[in-house]
Amino acid sequence: MKKIIFTFLGLGFLMAKAQTTLPTSWSFANPAPTGAASPSPTGPESNGPTGWSTKLDINASGNTPFTYSSGQDGNAACKLDATGEYVKIWFTDKPGALSYYIKGTAISPNPPFSGTFTVQQSADGTTWSDLHVFTQANLTATSFTNFIDTPAANTRYVRFYYSQKVSGSNISLDNITLASAPATPAPKMNIKQGSSDIVNFSTFVIGKSAATTFTVENKGTADTLFVNGVTTGGDALADYTITGAPLAVPANSSATFIVNFSTNLTGTRKASITINSNDPDKPQFLVYLYGIGGDFASEPTAQASSLNFTNVKAYSFNVNYSASAASEKYLVLKKLGSAITAAPIDGQTYQRGDIIGDAQVAMVGTDTTFKPSYVLANSTYHYAVFPFNGPTGFENYTANSLANSVNTTGANSGNYYTGIDPTKSTFLTDLSAKINTHDTIYYSNFSSSLVNNWLAKDTTAGRKVVYCVYTHLPYVYTEPFVWASSASNGNLTREHTYAQSWMPSNIGNANWPNGSNNKELPEYNDQHHLFPADQLNANAVRSNSSFGEVVTVQSTSPSGFGKLGTNANGIKVWEPKDEHKGDVARALFYMATCYNGVDSKNWGMGIGAFSQDTAVLMKWHRQDPPSEHEIARHEYVYSIQKNRNPFIDHPEWANSINFVNMTWIPTSSVGLKEQNALSQVQVYPNPVQESQITLNGAPFGTHALLFDYSGKLIFKGDVDANNSIQTGKLNAGVYLLELNFNGAKSYHKVLSN
Fold this sequence. Notes:
By secondary structure, this protein is mainly beta. Strands 1, 3, 4, 6, 9 and 11 form a six-stranded antiparallel beta sheet that branches. Strands 24, 25, 26, 28, 29 and 30 form a six-stranded antiparallel beta sheet that branches. Helix 3 packs across helix 8 and helix 6 crosses helix 7. 45% of the residues are buried.
């Protein structure tokens, strides 16, 4: 047989970059089918069925494409909201009609769409020409419209491209279908294995099959397809032979041939087959073959190198390592708090989020850089990289890993609060003015900003999970994330901690949540108080009830957390899970402070449209200090909204404000000095080790009380000269540490494993 010289690219690369056959379609509502490219959050393209790619979320480098919760078919639709974003299709054959639904969204109540959106075509993926240009003149902002375009015969790429974004307008794209070109008299070759079409230049996994039958179809309507030989090539040429290769295939007919594979050798056996014909569009059809001798592919002979971490923050970092020329893909494990001892098992296929021993899969694929999701502040993350070869079921992982760890940062307010002094009578007005100036992140963007880029956690089988903040009920999903469309489906909605109906700006405003300029009011979409909540079991149940401690229970969520009932005074209240109580208090303190005085409105929580017990909020604020989760979330919101929650940075400042009527409470400068000293104290490490709690930065003379979460006193004593307290062996759980320095107090959450 003739040997064809070619460079064999890694299997993962070929699969990730493969073209698609026609017809092809994507509605954005369902996960990409098996074989789809894996997300590449730090790269320019990610997500989609085979042959499709997206460039969405340019600025945030998120894990999933932006989506609208409701598209033309009632399910998710693609959301493009920045200049240069696109959805692209790369296909192998002459195209037919291109059908799609599009809507030019704009801020309620539906002013005209502005900007330019273009549907483009290309023969080579580099030089593009316009198929359809959309502007305000031909794109409605009230409903989806179906458009049908006809690409040129030599087109092999189509993209939906946001040419010019104008603030306030976005594009909603749904139900894209690209048909095959109509049949012609000329011969048209199509290769199949079983019922599946084979894409030109793609990889077919032979596995351990000794004989595999391929079908050659002629989809032309008149002329005979002449096959000028089926040849093998590649490194393992000698392992493969062809029998029964057809010479001619009449129109609308088919013929078969067999690829025989010798299985007596071990490891990876790569080759190719080339089919030459008189098909005018595909005169040479190339398929890469991946055979396995024995049980597994060949183990990589070299490890990856230079595992390091860049752009480390309280809420994120990038994982980077140098590629191994001997491997096709990488499996990366992660673990919080201690070194990884687990390792993958040969022949086992893993997806992102799967658990292996004491670690979790952080990435599987060809990427050598990625951005993890759900990163906590003040935490140590350990990573281990295992190069491997082999397709599904034949994976061979390196026996040893490349390992390293990274420490995330904590709260970092820098000089943000310069000039803010709680001892001054202008403290409240100064603080309000400082934090009220911020960027607007639209309510509809909460999922694409906070959920996709930070909050969503990896879970098994490549899925994600987001928890209800009130009940801890999980919402497990396959990307993209979609909000609940009704109260009956039990999924998540965006919860206003400071209820919309409480807001003074809501009173008498017929256009709520939009002001006279038809843009969302900042208090409505403020990310500092928006959280995901289960619609059926929490959000709808709470409604606009104030927060409190339930004495007489009326309803409880299925998780046992999140209760509605009456408090000791007989007032109906909603009680969230313990871990969110401090977060609730600080979110309400922030909202009342940030918007107090805007439009001459007083945001006091005892004089408006509701009556919130601020004493219980102060209790929760002290009992549940800012956690590493809350600090990371806070730093992320600051990065996108450009303002901070002062009661996370300075919990002691809550003592200087009467949140009932929003007035200043005078604080002595002496007491402030002690309080500032305590505000610098950090519990590290946390979880604590052995029977000792180390308090970095504790001033001399600090007294400590340690309680379990039932309120039982566990320890009482002074911080020693080594900035530690000797508690004795602690049971696994969560504890509350109260520090007292000359009358000033601070509170810290302590974990013990």
